[in-house]
Amino acid sequence: MRSRAPRGRGGAGGTGLRAAALVVAAGVILGAWWLLSLVVDSPVLPGPLAVLVRMVEIGPRILLRHAGASLGRVAAALVVATAAALPLGLVMGRSRRIDRLLAPIAYLLYPVPKIALLPIVFLLVGIGDAARITVVVLVLFFQILVAVRDAARSIPSAYLVSFASIGGTRLQSLRFVLLPAILPELLTALRLGTGTALAVLFFAETFFTNYGLGTFIVESWMRVSYPDMMAGIVSIGLLGLLLFVALDLVEHFVCWWKHRSTR
């Protein structure tokens, strides 16, 4: 019976090292924050201990509600953007005719700051969650589209011809050749897009909504409640970390061959 080679990054040792690196990084950031708060010596920048105490006080009844709203919007945008950009990117990558038709449109729209479209989206979609999700989808869509298209284009046609020569159908080629080849680039695009998506969502949540970390941070700032404001900023950072870790776990399971030990 054939067995899989050991996975280098997926083993217990690799996981422990990554966890230790996160702990060290968190310690460095907290230490720098604490020193900066001492140097500044202003209520505008409370220290990490004061913010942690405030997070414990308001977390269960306030922060979790706002964080849940933001997480739901980002998760919905990730799903919609991937579902829309993945098939289109595959088609553009494998068909030069379609790529010549659609690539100029993508190149013209990609550099446009999507947050600038927020007023138009509000007018067309309304002021509900659909508008915020739509703006984040626009941010993620083009990053996924370009990454998938380039990855699909780089797959040698000989691979598909060889697979077809042993009886593989087009659907099987998609499942066993194309998708495994583009998955690493897809997940990289999602990771890169997540940070931008959170920044755009923060801005979008400052309009016409009662829930979301963007709303909470701005309202705390306007109330001159700086510990609350910093608690919101820390929470949105933790939300980004959660999404990054989740994408790393997805990559670990669906791209397991990348992490084989090279003995």
Report on this model:
- This protein is mainly α.
- It has 2 domains: 10-41; 47-258, MetI-like (MetI-like fold, Orthogonal Bundle).
- It contains 9 helices and no strands.
- It has helices at 12-40, 48-94, 96-109, 118-125, 129-153, 157-165, 170-204, 213-222, 226-254.
- Helix 2 runs antiparallel to helix 3 (96-109), helix 2 (48-94) packs parallel to helix 9 (226-254) and helix 4 (118-125) crosses helix 5 (129-153).
- It is globular, with a radius of gyration of 22 Å.
Please name the defining characteristics of this protein.
263 residues, MetI-like fold, 2 domains, 9 helices, disordered N terminus
Write a brief caption for the model.
By secondary structure, this protein is mainly α. The protein has helices at 12-40, 48-94, 96-109, 118-125, 129-153, 157-165, 170-204, 213-222, 226-254.
Beta-strand residue percentage: under 5%
The CATH class label of the largest domain is: Mainly Alpha
Mean pLDDT, all residues: 88
The CATH architecture name of the largest domain reads Orthogonal Bundle
Number of domains: 2
Largest sheet: none
- Helix tally equals 9
CATH fold-level assignment of the largest domain? MetI-like fold
Shape from CA axes? globular
Given the helix and strand composition, which structural class is it?
mainly alpha
* Rg on CA atoms, Å: 22 Å
Taking pLDDT < 50 over at least 5 consecutive residues as the criterion, the unreliable ranges are 1-10
The count of strands amounts to 0
Helical residue percent?
Answer: over 70%
CATH homolog superfamily of the largest domain: MetI-like
Intertermini distance = 20 Å
Order of helices and strands: HHHHHHHHH
